[in-house]
Structure to design on (270 residues):
């Protein structure tokens, strides 16, 4: 599942290919991808130019002349660029025919991804984006501390709660706990102010490093399209031995998610 760094990589790559293009028409082959009125979505986008692509958390926001729409890739969503007329893949669900003779094709084997028209000038302050917490890159300490300090939930579960910090998924939550040298089961209320500040700083650091790696790994679309998934250097997620002490990495299930940690380096304090 793409997390913030992967979605950022998709954004940057897409911008190189589709900026300033006119959407001549939109074809929707699986209606449920569109949240809201499908006819209105098609009508609004037709003959609009793609002015910019923004991102918040794991959402892409396509900014057009008069409208904007958001796209969430969920589990398997990805984009392809293909010359118009190329036969469709059976999982191509939304096709934007562009003015330059190419299609931007949204492909999604699991069909969980969603697109939705949003208010171009105010999307950040309306649902669903208004329900999201801050990105680690711009997080306000007091707000994050308040939410973490009053919770008895494990810190890893809190890292996955998109209303506290947004953009972190299971892989990076494991990595952040490892870099904190903190047992992922540690309860939020056990974290001091100093540790919460570290948590914000390390979250930012881990995501920034992954964005940088994505930028160097992915330069364009490959045969499989742009999904942003790239090989990131991971310290603990799906690893066998700890890169610091050499102990075996343990795997447990926490709130239904595979959780990896080093029992020696990530001390139990809860
Ligand atoms: Zn270790």
């Amino acid at each position: 599942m793409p997390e913030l760094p992967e979605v950022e990589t998709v954004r940057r790559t897409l911008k190189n290919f589709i900026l300033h293009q006119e959407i001549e028409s939109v074809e929707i082959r699986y209606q449920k991808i569109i949240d809201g009125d499908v006819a209105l979505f098609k009508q609004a986008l037709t003959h609009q130019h793609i002015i910019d692509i923004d991102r918040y958390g794991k959402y892409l926001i396509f900014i057009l002349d008069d409208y904007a729409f958001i796209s969430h890739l969920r589990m398997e969503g990805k984009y392809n660029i293909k010359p118009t007329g190329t036969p469709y893949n059976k999982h191509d669900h939304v096709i934007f025919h562009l003015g330059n003779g190419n299609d931007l094709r949204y492909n999604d084997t699991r069909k969980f991804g969603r697109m939705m028209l949003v208010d171009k000038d105010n999307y950040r302050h309306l649902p669903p984006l208004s329900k999201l917490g801050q990105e680690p890159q711009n997080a306000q300490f007091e707000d994050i501390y308040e939410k973490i300090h009053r919770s008895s939930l494990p810190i890893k579960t809190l890292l996955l709660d998109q209303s506290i910090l947004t953009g972190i998924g299971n892989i990076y939550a494991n990595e952040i706990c490892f870099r904190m040298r903190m047992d992922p089961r540690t309860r939020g209320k056990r974290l001091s102010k100093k540790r919460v500040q570290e948590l914000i700083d390390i979250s930012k650091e881990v995501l920034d490093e992954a964005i940088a790696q994505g930028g160097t790994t992915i330069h364009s679309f490959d045969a499989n399209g742009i999904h942003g998934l790239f090989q990131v250097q991971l310290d603990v997620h799906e690893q066998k031995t700890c890169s610091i002490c050499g102990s075996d990495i343990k795997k447990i299930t926490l709130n239904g998610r595979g959780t990896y940690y080093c029992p020696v380096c990530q001390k139990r304090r809860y």
